[in-house]
Amino acid sequence: MNRYGAQAQRHWQTYLPQRYATIADPNSFFSTLGEEAATAIEQRARELAGPDQPDEGYLGKLGRLNAAQRTAEEEILPELILIDPATDGPPGETPSASTTSASPAWTPLVEDPNDPWWQRVAQEEADQNDEPVPPTR
């Protein structure tokens, strides 16, 4: 499973648990989804980058290719991988209270490691960096 598949699996488990529960074989599903996302991002990045420019130096080309890659990810990931829980579901159906409360639209002003919001953020950062979560008080 590539990084996009792993990212989708973590996101769906956290923010789309009902949708995730309907998947018969998550490893196969997210492996395939990750490959589809990688292919779509690669194709879109090539389109955005365009052909090499005359008299373009190494750093200029590197910057152009990196910008195209990031833009392609910004376009593709919300469609395939990081689906918004607020818009997920049948058309015309409003999200449930449990879906909307899963990701608050605010950030606490005081850092409290015992607060569930901070624990969730610490867990997500640890998962991304493959580090252990720091203990709480």
TrEMBL record:
Protein name: TnpV protein
Annotated Low complexity bias: 94-108
Disordered: annotated span: 76-137
